[in-house]
Structures are given as structure tokens and as C-alpha cells.
Amino acid sequence: MLNQTLETKTVESYEEVAAVVELPVKHAEPVVVSYAEDIVKVVNLSKQFDGIEVLRDINLTIKKGEVVSILGSSGSGKSTLLRCMNWLEQPERGTIHLGDERIGINPHTDKPLKYRDLAKMRERIGMVFQGFNLWPHLTVLKNVMEALLHVKKMPKAEAEAIAKVQLEKVGMSHKLDSYPSMLSGGQKQRVAIARALAMEPEVLLFDEPTSALDPELVDEVLLVMQKLSKEGYTMVVVTHEMEFARNVSSQVVFLEKGILIEKNPPEKFFTNPDSSRVRQFLKLD
């Protein structure tokens, strides 16, 4: 059973929260992970809004088990790229594959997938939004059970068992009967993460998961994400949290005006990036 430290509304210290989710402190040696096959492949992806190109010829390959952080200034296209990955936004050009399956497009007709097929595909891609997107009229437990019941058509007992396991993983098993209005922002986001995990996705997408949180609540969410990375989850994270990107990422990507201008391991990205724009962003010069 998880320690109850995370029941409190604020975080006392990094080390205290690290103990709750059984993580090392900040300066521990990184875990070495062996990456296998490609799980996400983005090829020549472009997207426009009202005739303005917000993504231009993006190419990005993500291997199973990697954590890829996407950085960039506001309006650089980070969230749009993430939303294209699960077809919440439809690109004008290019392709996205999840494993061998092309996302959003019927391979036989080359036309957009029908709603039912698209919903089935999205079961393989978990999405955690900055605004939590919890059902306000449902308890914590029922929020996590909802998709299991209505998308996967699971029996109630099975859905409830899975939901409880995932809520315990993120330190929220003591809030099963609470409603979202009774939770702190960090607690809401941990419930949203549990909801995504319950669907057993192959990839987890995080769209600025801490940007709506008060500063003292950020660590509790980042620590859960760090725990997931150590368990081998494939994660794509749009973030402004430089320390998380440096310490947890396998690769760091930088977008500038819709163009991917840098992709490197964090040790190179944060100390000796290839792009002068990234050096400027990181204030290295």
C-alpha cells in the first residue's frame, strides 16, 4: 500500500514525495533502459490553422520505452503535434504510425477512419490534458472506470478492480469516493493519469500536465510520471519543466515556429545543443 503522504494538499519536499512513490532522490544515477522497436513514427507532418502553417514537415521516431520531452516557446506547435498523434487534430500532410498501424486513416481506402474505428485506435494512446478533463459529476473511482465500462465494455467488477489498482499506483486510493471539486489540482491530475493507465495504452501523451498547477503541487505529478518512466512506459511529454526533461527524458525535442529544429539526448541538449536558437532558449550563451 502506498504511503499516505500524498493525501495532503501540498508537498513538503521532493524527498518526502519520492519516498511515497518509491523513487530515488534527484541526484541518483539514471536508470539504463534498453529501447526496442519503433512505436511511433511521424513522417513529413504538416498542419495548418486558417491557412497558417503551425507544423511544417515534422519527422520524429519514438522507440518503445522512451520518454520524449517536447520543448519550445509558446505557440511553437508543441500541443498541436501531440494532438495530431491521437488524431484530435488532423494534419494536412504527412503520416503518423503507431507500430504498424497508420493513425487516423483507413489503410484500404486512404480515407479518415470511421468514428468507431478511431475510438478503437485511441484505446492504444493515452492522453493526459493540462486541464484534467475529469467528469465533475462522477467520483474519482467512477472517473477511472468510465472508459473501461463504455469503451472496453468490461464487466463492472473487473473495471472497478483495474481502476483501484491504477489509483493506488498514483497515490489516490484514499480518495475513491471523492468528487473532482474536492481535490487539489495535483490530485486531479493524478486521477487523470490513473484514468489513462487503466486503458493499458501503448503510448502516453502528456500535454503540459503541470501548467495548471500551483508551484507547490507540481512535484507530486512529476514524481508519478518519473515512476511510470522507470516502469517502461512510452511517454511523449509537452512540458516547460526543464528539470524533468533533463532527468527523465531519453530524447528532448525542440520546436520553433512549427519546425523541429533539434532532437538530442538530454545530456547533449542541455549542455551542447546543435541549434543556436536552443542555446538562446536555454541561456547558454
From TrEMBL:
PANTHER family in the record: AMINO ACID IMPORT ATP-BINDING PROTEIN (PTHR43166), HISTIDINE TRANSPORT ATP-BINDING PROTEIN HISP (PTHR43166:SF15)
Gene Ontology CC: plasma membrane
Family indicated by similarity: Belongs to the ABC transporter superfamily.
Entry annotated with the keyword Nucleotide-binding: yes
Lipid bilayer topology: Peripheral membrane protein
GO molecular function: ABC-type amino acid transporter activity; ATP binding; ATP hydrolysis activity
UniProt keyword terms in alphabetical order: Amino-acid transport, ATP-binding, Nucleotide-binding, Transport
Cellular compartments annotated: Cell inner membrane
Keyword Lyase listed: no
Ranges annotated as spanning the membrane: none
Name of the protein this chain belongs to: Histidine/lysine/arginine/ornithine ABC transporter ATP-binding protein HisP
One Pfam family in the UniProt entry: ABC_tran
Top-level taxon in the UniProt lineage: Bacteria
